């Protein structure tokens, strides 16, 4: 029997990955699979598994050979439960990876790639300790922090190699997966010599190797904030993404992204409140295209409003309370999601 090289890919599916980013990750995954299939050695040895995590962790692809490694459609949910993902990874390894015995050589040590926005919202220390003690033992953990708000002081504790993929554009992520394919291809040819991958493979322009002894300082000011909205007319959830403008010291609306029906099913995790006055720019509802917005005084839900609202009362799409419209409120707070 061939010794397999199990490769576990852990994918963060929190809000920071919503929209085009998640599409690009799905496409990138297929680039990875097809690139590996072209290498006869990888085709024979590499077995892939994908674990997604948001409010909970889930096995999206059970460890299987490359031709069978089909990814289900991904969707985002609030939360970055990396700890839960590490626990699930450990259980998968215990179940799926063949141990070496006195008589037979088992699988190669599993490789782990984590793609995350880098801000776990659950306990990850306990799960990490348990993962490090798993039998059969794991090979290297590569963490790829994506976006502007990556906390490398945490990721460096988890991973042997930390990389920063700052840009989340479709092109940048496509490049990342090309790099990932080349890495796994290289590793499949020398599964034991996993140590200097980051040195042996050229990084593309968007991908930076993080010095683990001197991780970049984590900024207290979030570069992006995520607000949950509900369309007042269609009762559908959407995400509003704001980007921080350092010169002007406010957040500018960057995009609005429609979300799946079950988005709120796993609850939400709130970050500290921010003053609505620091939010600038037009927020276009992706469902009804209204460009104004409001907040329910009862449940705190945010929703779309028409610029020229004619009714004097409206119904909150979340808690269904009838609300009198007031435009005179000088200031109110909104609670972004933890992302
Ligand atoms: Zn709407
Ligand atoms: Zn309400």
Summary keywords:
339 residues, alpha/beta, Rossmann fold, 2 domains, 7-stranded mixed β-sheet, 6-stranded mixed β-sheet, 23% helix, elongated, binds zinc ion
Low-pLDDT stretches are none
Please name the CATH topology of the largest domain: Rossmann fold
Integer average pLDDT: 87
Please state roughly what percent of the residues sit in beta strands, choosing from under 5%, 5-15%, 15-25%, 25-35%, 35-45% or over 45%.
25-35%
CATH C-level name of the largest domain:
Alpha Beta
The biggest beta sheet is recorded as:
7 strands, mixed
The secondary structure category is: alpha/beta
> Which distinct ligands sit in these coordinates?
zinc ion
Supply Rg.
22 Å
Can you characterise this structure?
The chain is built from 7 helices and 17 strands. It has a 7-stranded mixed sheet with strand order 3-2-1-4-5-6-7, with helices on both faces. A 6-stranded mixed sheet has the order 12-10-9-8-14-13, with no helix packed on it. The protein folds into 2 domains: 5-209, 3-Layer(aba) Sandwich (Rossmann fold), CATH 3.40.50; 224-334, no CATH class. With 339 residues, it is an alpha/beta fold. A hairpin with a 6-residue loop joins strand 15 (313-315) and strand 16. The structure holds zinc ion (2 copies).
Write a brief caption for the model.
This protein is an alpha/beta fold and 339 residues long. 23% of the residues lie in helices and 27% in strands.
């Amino acid at each position: 029997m061939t010794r397999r090289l199990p490769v576990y890919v852990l994918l963060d599916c929190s809000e920071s990955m919503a929209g085009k980013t998640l599409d690009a990750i799905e496409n990138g995954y297929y680039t990875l699979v097809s690139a590996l299939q072209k290498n006869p050695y990888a085709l024979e040895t590499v077995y892939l598994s994908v674990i997604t995590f948001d409010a909970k962790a889930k096995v999206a692809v059970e460890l299987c050979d490359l031709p069978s490694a089909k990814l289900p459609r991904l969707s985002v949910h609030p939360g970055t439960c990396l700890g839960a993902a590490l626990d699930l990874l450990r259980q998968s390894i215990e179940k799926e990876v063949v141990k070496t015995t006195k008589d037979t050589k088992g699988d190669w040590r599993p490789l782990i790639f984590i793609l995350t926005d880098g801000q776990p919202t659950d306990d990850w220390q306990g799960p990490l300790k348990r993962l490090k003690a798993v039998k059969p033992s794991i090979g290297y953990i590569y963490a790829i922090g994506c976006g502007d708000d990556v906390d490398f002081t945490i990721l460096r504790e988890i991973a042997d190699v930390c990389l920063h993929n700052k840009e989340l554009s479709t092109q940048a992520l496509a490049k990342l997966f090309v790099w990932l394919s080349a890495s796994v291809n290289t590793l499949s040819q020398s599964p034991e010599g996993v140590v200097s991958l980051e040195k042996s493979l050229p990084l593309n322009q968007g991908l930076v190797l993080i010095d683990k002894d001197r991780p970049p300082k984590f900024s207290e000011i979030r570069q992006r904030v995520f607000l949950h909205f509900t369309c007042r007319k269609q009762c559908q959830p959407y995400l509003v993404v704001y980007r921080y403008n350092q010169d002007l010291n406010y957040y500018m609306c960057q995009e609005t992204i429609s979300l799946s029906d079950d988005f709120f099913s796993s609850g939400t995790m709130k970050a500290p409140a921010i003053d609505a006055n620091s939010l600038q720019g037009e927020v276009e509802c992706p469902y009804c295209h209204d460009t104004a917005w409001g907040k329910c005084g009862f449940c705190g839900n945010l929703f779309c409003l028409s610029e020229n609202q004619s009714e004097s009362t409206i119904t909150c799409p979340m808690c269904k309370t009838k609300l009198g419209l007031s435009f005179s409120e000088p200031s109110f707070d909104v609670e972004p999601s933890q992302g």
